[in-house]
């Protein structure tokens, strides 16, 4: 039976914790990582009622989008809903796991699902992140006459398996150049080539691969394990390159341009929302930017990217002026823009742990906002 730790590893492979925003607190909120999973209940928010539903339906893990513990807790007295939720979970051995902005910032996450619901095509990240990549350079012996020893191939295969060599949708990417290496093994060494105190000059290959910074430890461990040299020479250089697969928001195109009123009607129908708060706009809408949750911080990015409409939640009165008549800004509500995140979790867990335990979507309503229409 898989453990809570197995579950967290699966979720963090899809949405690494390194990609959460600095203010966030994604990850295992409470619970024993070694406990066996009997069932998972999925919700956007975890409340005492959600913990009660988990127990009622035989689940000992709640996977949610919003962290229960967002700010440090100074006491657990049940004085508020956060404390009540944690107390109920701890008393009943229910683990709570949250994937928040890390799931917002990856492909296949919150915004990809929202784009899918709206029927957008040619999707790409609206505001890609920088500073998440590094370049690894290492050197391996290269003796073309020895056809039985493909050292470069063996080392690169290990690096790829550890998470290096991915460029966008291209895998196993590397660069190699030929050169000459020199070294003199010291006393007490056991060199793979040569002997102590004997200078060596031999052909080498310089290998270069990209890697996500959060995979640095695993990639370096794989390098040392696969490399034939006793002392492995390498360079690790942090890059400011834009990572186009990681970042905030999403852009895409509608199959057919819609008039503003028709676009808003489509939002209501597909997102199951009774109300869309929006700015005035007269042109047809083809290119659409989106951000699940509170996305007002991306209004300028959506406008600069040439979006005809930007769909998000939690827009304040003065923030609507940021559209400046260049796009139609649509606020569909925080919950409403993220409500399909449960499907993301469900698909990840059912694919990763097929028929091992029940994966259920919560039936308890958690949206605190009600509408009179």
| The top level CATH class name of the largest domain | Alpha Beta
Distance between the termini: 48 Å
Q: In which order are the strands of the major sheet placed?
A: 5-10-12-13-14-11
Summarize the biggest pleated sheet.
6 strands, mixed
CATH architecture descriptor text of the largest domain: 3-Layer(aba) Sandwich
Q: How do the helices and strands follow one another from N- to C-terminus?
A: HEEHEHEHHEEHEEHEEHEEHEEHHE
- Calculate the mean pLDDT score and round it: 95
Number of discrete domains:
3
Roughly how much helix do the residues carry, as a percent range?
25-40%
CATH homologous superfamily identity of the largest domain: NIF3 (NGG1p interacting factor 3)-like
The rough form would be described as globular
- Strand residues, percent: 25-35%
Low-confidence stretches: none
- Rg (CA only): 25 Å
Instruction: Decide which structural class fits the backbone.
Output: alpha/beta
Binding site for a divalent metal cation: 65-66, 104, 334, 338
GO molecular function, one term: metal ion binding
Family: Belongs to the GTP cyclohydrolase I type 2/NIF3 family.
Protein name: GTP cyclohydrolase 1 type 2 homolog
């Amino acid at each position: 039976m898989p453990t809570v730790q197995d579950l967290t590893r699966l979720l963090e492979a899809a949405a690494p914790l390194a990609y959460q925003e600095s203010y966030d607190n994604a990850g295992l909120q409470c619970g024993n990582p070694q406990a066996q999973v009997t069932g998972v209940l999925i919700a956007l928010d975890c409340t005492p009622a959600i913990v009660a539903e988990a127990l009622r339906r035989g689940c000992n893990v709640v996977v949610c989008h919003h962290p229960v513990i967002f700010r440090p807790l100074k006491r657990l007295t049940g004085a508020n809903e956060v404390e009540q939720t944690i107390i109920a979970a701890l008393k009943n051995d229910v683990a709570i796991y949250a994937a928040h902005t890390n799931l917002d910032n990856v492909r296949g996450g919150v915004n990809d699902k929202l784009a899918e619901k709206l029927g957008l095509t040619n999707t790409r990240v609206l505001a890609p992140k920088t500073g998440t990549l590094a370049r690894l350079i290492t050197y391996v012996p290269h003796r073309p006459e020895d056809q039985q020893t493909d050292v470069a191939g063996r080392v690169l295969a290990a690096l790829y398996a550890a998470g290096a060599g991915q460029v966008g949708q291209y895998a196993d990417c590397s660069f190699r150049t030929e050169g000459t290496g020199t070294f003199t093994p010291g006393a007490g060494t056991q060199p793979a080539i040569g002997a102590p105190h004997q200078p060596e000059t031999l052909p080498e290959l310089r290998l270069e691969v990209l890697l996500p910074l959060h995979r640095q430890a695993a990639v370096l461990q794989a390098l040392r394990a696969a490399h034939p040299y006793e002392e492995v020479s390498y360079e690790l250089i942090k890059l400011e390159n834009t990572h186009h697969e990681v970042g905030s928001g999403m852009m895409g195109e509608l199959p057919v341009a819609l008039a503003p009123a028709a676009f808003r009607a489509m939002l209501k129908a597909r997102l199951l929302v009774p109300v869309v708060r929006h700015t005035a706009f007269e042109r047809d809408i083809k290119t659409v930017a989106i951000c699940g949750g509170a996305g007002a911080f991306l209004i300028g990015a959506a406008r600069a990217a040439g979006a005809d409409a930007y769909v998000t939640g939690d827009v304040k009165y003065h923030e609507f002026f940021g559209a400046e008549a260049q796009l139609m800004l649509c606020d569909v509500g925080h919950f409403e823009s993220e409500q399909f995140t449960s499907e993301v979790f469900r698909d990840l867990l059912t694919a990763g742990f097929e028929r091992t335990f029940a994966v259920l979507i919560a039936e308890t309503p958690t949206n605190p906002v009600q509408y009179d229409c």
